[in-house]
Sequence to fold (83 residues):
Amino acid sequence: MKHIHTRSLSDEELRPALAANDLIRIRAAGLSLRKIEQQIDRLGFGDLYIVSVGESKFNHMPTANLSPALAIDGRTRDCLAGF
Fold:
């Protein structure tokens, strides 16, 4: 599922979306890549998510994209175990 937010999220708001491997986009003034990465690390998802920050081409608002690093199902995990 994809979530779009217009403000930074609290731990309680962010944790369920991270646990569900959802794509998360945050558009808000004053976004800090470092703070978002630290929050994701603190919640225990640091190795599972990629965080990138850019700028909206329409309103030049800072935008953070939080994407699952790798979606692995059981069969894929079994196949990768042999490498």
Residues 27 and 63 are 4 Å apart (CA to CA). Confidence is low (pLDDT under 50) at residues 75-83.
